[in-house]
Amino acid sequence: MPRDPVPLGFVFRSRAKDEKAAVAAQAQLTDSKQPRDPQAPKGRPTPKRSEAQSQRRSVANTSMTRKEAAKRQREERRAAMERQRQALAGGDERYLPARDKGPVRRFARDFVDSRFNIAEYFLPMAVVILVLSMVRVPALQSIALLLWLVVIVLIVLDSFVTGYRLKKRLAERFPDENKRGAVAYALMRSLQMRRLRLPKPQVKRGERP
């Protein structure tokens, strides 16, 4: 008996299903050849490097509680302060504050520390003058006022000479370096008593820096 003709729609649908099945099999075969990340769950593709790093970072952040994170930050700050304190005492450039770093600032400190500065005796002299001015004797009060004027004039003159010489030495020693603020930095240091200066003096008096 002659067979009934097969409908064209059925033929096209079967061919489309076969093509889809072939494409799916090829994709499955390609995925199976890719190396799977041991940390990736089974049945899932290997994550990208950026995604894996973000996942590990999030896991590390969630594993530390807020209290532990705060404690760790306090310990890091305490260690940084201790390193800075030791640097101020020993002159270690690595851990000095930003205002004290650099060869220009170091030379300015050594220049001031190697000289006698009238300004560093300002506080002791100010105490003596204040005591004299409190005594109810007109002669002593007049002497105290005169001493005030003499001390102020001497400090101004000494600071002017120090600043001028330091500026000249810096221009000779560091012609290509940034010297902005170095003279003012040195003059502020000259106002402090030698034993109270930070960073600690690294040169002796009279020693050429």
From TrEMBL:
Record's compositionally biased regions (Basic and acidic residues): 65-96
Record's compositionally biased regions (Polar residues): 52-64
Residue intervals passing through the bilayer: 118-137, 143-164
Keywords, sorted A to Z: Membrane, Transmembrane, Transmembrane helix
Region (Disordered): 1-96
Keyword Transmembrane included in the entry's annotation: yes
The protein's name in its UniProt record: Membrane protein
Pfam families the record matches: DUF3043 (PF11241)
Listed InterPro entries: DUF3043
